[in-house]
Amino acid sequence: MSLRVAVLKGGTSLERQVSLRSAGRVERALERLGHDVIPIDVDAALVQQLRDSDADVAFVALHGRGGEDGTVQELLEIVGMPYTGSGVLACMRCMDKVLTKHLLVREHVPTPDFFAFSDVAFREFGAADALPAIEERLGFPIVVKPAAQGSALGIEFAASPADVPQALVAAFSYDNRVLLERHVKGRELAVGLLDGEHGPEALPIVEAKPKQEYFFDFEARYEIGKTDYVCPADLPADVTALAQELAGKTYRLLGCYGFARIDMMLPEEGPPQVLEAQAIPGLTETSLFPQAADAAGISFDEFVERLVQLALQRSPAATPA
Amino acid sequence: MPDRHQTTSHEIERYAGLFAKRTRQMRSSAMRDLMAITARPEVISLAGGLPDTSTFSPETFAALTATIARESCASALQYGPTEGFDETKRCIAEVMAVEGMRVEIGDMIVTTGGQQVIDLVTKTLVDPGDVVICEAPTYPGAVPVFASYEADVVQIEMDADGMRIDLLEETLERLDQERRRPKFIYTVPTFQNPAGVTLSAPRRQRLVEIARERELLVLEDNPYGLLRYEGEPLPPLRALDGGVYVLYLGTFSKILSPGIRIGWVVAPPPVLAKINLGKQAADLCTSSLTQQLVAGFFAEGRWLAYVQDLCGIYRRRRDAMLDALAEHFPPEAEWTQPGGGLFIWATLPDFIDTEDLLAKAIRQESVAFVPGSAAYVDGRGGSSMRLNFSAAGEDDIVEGIRRIGKVIDEQISLWGTISGKGTTGGRAASSSAGEAQDDRDEGPPGPLADVVELPRRTDTKRGASGS
After folding, report:
1. Cα separation of B217 and B244, whole Å?
2. pLDDT digits (tens, 9 = 90+) for B345-390
3. Distance from C-alpha of A94 to C-alpha of A256, rounded to nearest angstrom
């Protein structure tokens, strides 16, 4: 059945360009599938454009603030247009790494030890006095990251106490809340989940291996040839099963729908440690999620079609109270 | 129908295997992605290097194109000679004469913007691993060119008088000992991009002597020489050298229009011949249409008056920016005082990373600048920024600087709180610009008061690589 699909893309988040690349691929897939594509570069006219579009469904190909944090999802609920991916609450939980981690801890999903601060804590409540104790507890290096930034922008490593203030100032450039997290040395894994007839299904695990010895950064993440991806990751069967199980648990406890990507670190010893969840993982040529789907025998077009169908199936009654 | 062959990981492997090795050096960056958001209408961008083309009269433009359509339509739509049209070259000779250089039309090639000259000269002279010397900071647009030819870029520090020639000589000695001979020295001697400083007369003389003594080529990039807002012009390197070792890059981009994409190179005949072959391979010829447009405009005899109009506009904008910097930037900041050109280079305390600051400035205040690291090949420049004063009107400049000053104040205050170190005697905790002004009035704020040397930042910020 041919549908009118509004593809929401761009916007003003720091990940605008990545979103445009994701959306470009999605649009081409939708056209191949025989749907009518209505591209919308989201701005102040969004609500009006949605109303005028007469679309059957919205494909949300936005990343970062505004698009991935529940804001656009809320507007789509208000307008009454079905949309792909997670709902408002799940998006809010995924976008907020601190909230994600609190929920993980509560449900006994392993996640690296952490502390979180707002800038107010430093400005008004003398949080700096707590830093030495935190540093002792977490040990160096410490990872410092903004609570709400979908990409690797603003993620800093502090190798010693002297690095911490600068790392905090850098991370606070991206959000008013930051996370200090124990650094887990190990292999970087991404587990994609895709909803199907029997609930969320874990896709083959992708391992990201930077070609050079540097941090798996924002650039490497979106550029061809900078990172080697191995999918399925070369892992013992029990480790694969555990990682997929933890990813599924994370997906459910955050309330994700449609698809999501769970990023984790596999330390040399012990179970995988869940770092964060991406409610709308990148869909560019170099993104991890489409590779995982491909390894599962699900082509990009099939994946796009499935997300659209899942959006239509979601009951409008699921609108949050 | 879903196409089974449209699969992602296979695509990636297929393309990645096909890329040339040199593309590893060609970096698109998160920063470039970030800069893309600055095109939003609500953003005050002090980032671009754009001249203000709104000052060019649409009536003049319409008349010029109408004349071309009437009198030389077929040739304007046709290929032209690789080296360019003689009519355009005569305009170039006129511009260079105003700057004190005598050239014949056979000495030059008309290029697709000045950027193509950097590309062609590097293509002509540089094998992978060859040394190219340039200023620190250097024109950010030259960095990817050097990278794409796999040059080993060595940057020489500057101060208020431009490139430190003593450091250049030290570097040349060192390279000599390493048996490495640099292929050329790339310099923007006048109103340098991004630093805004100008190479002093004695240093110009010495640079030309060094080139001669060592038989080294110098690529003199001079887009801004005519955009002088005060003081007397200094002789271009080409004029001092007579064109033996100095290759000269000129452009109409800043004195007429960057949209027409017309630049030029003047070089000794053997070099010019090679560059010509390189240009044939690159694009056969520069646009016939826009070359004719330049010739038509110059025939009216008002081009210099137009440049003088631009100078008046840019001088006022520069003054507005300098005043705003003094008012809104904290005393810990320092900046250059350009006598012309389009840019001011500002440097903040080294705990501030201007890439992160840019993200905050865009997110919170809708204002943009170029982070300094773009002008270095080695990760330095992290606490500096390039500010452009030609593209925005005076009100926007003042407002833009106010907003940037605000996010800097917040960073400084936060750093002071977290680190427990006030930066200048309690200044860190204060938030009002008025207090900052008072601080400054009390006396010079320490070692930063008299800025001679352009700042360098030795520590690289992210300690990730070692861990």
Report:
1. 8
2. 999 999 999 999 999 999 899 999 999 988 998 888 899 999 999 9
3. 9
User: Does the CB of A291 have a partner CB in chain B at under 8 Å?
Assistant: yes
**Span A24-50, mean pLDDT?**
95
Pairing of strands B370-371, B384-388: antiparallel
In chain B, which residues have their Cβ closer than 8 Å to the Cβ of A294?
A: 7-10
DSSP string, B238-251: HHHH-SSSEEEEEE
**With a CB-CB cutoff of 8 Å, which residues 334-373 of chain B face chain A?**
351-353, 356-357, 359-360, 362-363
Q: Does B458 touch chain A (CB under 8 A)?
A: no
Reported as a single tens digit per residue, the pLDDT across A85-119 is: 999 999 999 999 999 999 999 999 999 999 999 99
Predicted local confidence at residue A228, as pLDDT: 78
Identity of residue B286:
T
Q: Which two tokens stand for residue B212?
A: 């001669």
Query: How large is the greatest C-alpha to C-alpha distance in chain B, in angstroms?
Result: 75
Are A11 and A60 contacting, i.e. CB atoms less than 8 angstroms apart? no
Percent of chain B with pLDDT over 90: 76
Spatial separation of the C-alpha atoms in residues A147 and A168, rounded to whole Å: 12
A218/B36 touch (CB, cutoff 8 Å), yes or no: no
Kindly list the residues from chain B whose CB atom is less than 8 angstroms away from the CB atom of residue A15.
33
d(C-alpha B196, C-alpha B384), whole Å: 13
Q: Does A174 contact B10 at a Cβ distance shorter than 8 Å?
A: no
Q: HEC string of B8-30?
A: HHHHHHHHHHHCCHHHHCCCCCH
**Does the beta-carbon distance from B359 to A12 stay under 8 Å?**
no
Among B6, B15, B363, beta carbon nearest to A300: B6
**Tokens linked to A306:** 């499935």
Phi, psi of A144 (to 5 degrees): -115, 125
For residue A63, pLDDT beyond 80: yes
Inform me whether the C-beta atom of residue B54 falls under 8 Å from chain A C-beta atoms.
no
Q: State the DSSP H helix or E strand holding residue A241, giving kind and residue range, or none if neither.
A: helix A237-254
Give the global pTM: 0.83
Strand, helix or coil for residue B420: coil
Any A CB within 8 A of B411 CB: yes
Measured between beta carbons, the chain B residues lying within 8 angstroms of A157 are 462-464, 467
Q: Report the distance separating Cα B262 and Cα B113, nearest Å.
A: 4
∠ CA A222-A228-A233, rounded to 5°: 115
pLDDT at A39 over 80: yes
B30 and A CB contact within 8 Å = yes
| Residue A132 CB partners (closer than 8 Å, separation 6+) | A161
Nearby residues of A130 by Cβ (< 8 Å), 6 or more positions away: none
Please name the residue of chain A whose CA is at the shortest distance from the CA of residue B366.
A12
- Which among B34, B353, B462 has the least Cβ separation from residue A157? B462
Q: Which of B11, B15, B33 to mutate to test the interface with A (most CBs of A within 10 A)?
A: B33
DSSP-H helix ranges across B381-465: 394-419, 433-441
- pLDDT at position B16, please? 63
Nearest CB neighbour to B356, from listed A170, A224, A285: A170
Q: What is the H or E stretch that residue B167 is in?
A: helix B165-177
The residue among B399, B44, B389, B47 whose CA lies nearest residue B227 is: B389
